[in-house]
């Protein structure tokens, strides 16, 4: 009976720890009211100094695209960050949402973190995969 209680207690503790860790990833900034990212300019990182910066995301809404002479309506379902290109060695990222999927209807965030072990200028590019439907 005691062994069963300890197993249940261990499972409950791991569940709480998992929720606590997920809650610490980042908190979306509610000041973001339009589709895009916030902040627009990231604070500088320093070589051999720990860095952590949350970036709030609101995925892009429906749009239109031109294909030849046609203008097509595009209904965006979600976007997925597939990688961040240009991070210096020692840096990584983690998303609040599983698989780094973001929707146009909910604020979310990801966090850049780590200790860069090189100095320089590192322009970042965020590679995304957009899931959408086209009509017309």
Question: What do you see in this structure?
Answer:
The chain is of the alpha+beta class and 136 residues long. Helix content is 18%, strand content 42%. It contains 1 helix and 8 strands, in the order αββββββββ. The chain has one helix at 2-25, and strands at 36-38, 51-58, 63-67, 70-85, 91-95, 101-102, 108-114, 125-135. The protein has a 4-stranded antiparallel sheet, with no helix packed on it. β3 (63-67) and β4 form a beta hairpin. It is elongated, with a radius of gyration of 20 Å. Residues 1-23 have low confidence and may be disordered.
List the helices and strands and how they pair.
Blueprint: H1 2-25, E1 36-38, E2 51-58, E3 63-67, E4 70-85, E5 91-95, E6 101-102, E7 108-114, E8 125-135
Antiparallel strand pairs: 1-2, 2-7, 3-4, 4-6, 4-8, 5-7
> Which consecutive residue ranges, at least 5 long each, have pLDDT under 50?
1-23
Proportion of strand residues? 35-45%
Please write the string of helix (H) and strand (E) elements. Answer: HEEEEEEEE
Radius of gyration: 20 Å
- Helix/strand-derived class? alpha+beta
Overall pLDDT metric? 83
- Helix share of residues? 10-25%
């Amino acid at each position: 009976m005691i062994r069963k209680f300890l197993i249940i207690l261990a499972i409950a503790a791991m569940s709480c720890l998992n929720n606590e860790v997920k809650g610490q990833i980042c908190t979306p900034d509610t000041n973001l009211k339009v589709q895009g990212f916030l902040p627009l300019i990231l604070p500088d990182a320093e070589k051999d100094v720990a860095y952590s910066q949350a970036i709030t995301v609101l995925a892009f809404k429906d749009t239109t695209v031109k294909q030849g002479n046609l203008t097509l309506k595009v209904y965006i379902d979600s976007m997925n960050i597939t990688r961040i290109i240009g991070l210096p060695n020692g840096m990584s990222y983690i998303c609040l949402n599983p698989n780094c999927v973001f929707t146009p209807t909910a604020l979310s965030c990801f966090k850049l973190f780590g200790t860069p072990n090189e100095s320089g200028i590192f322009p970042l590019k965020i590679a995304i995969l957009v899931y959408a439907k086209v009509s017309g």
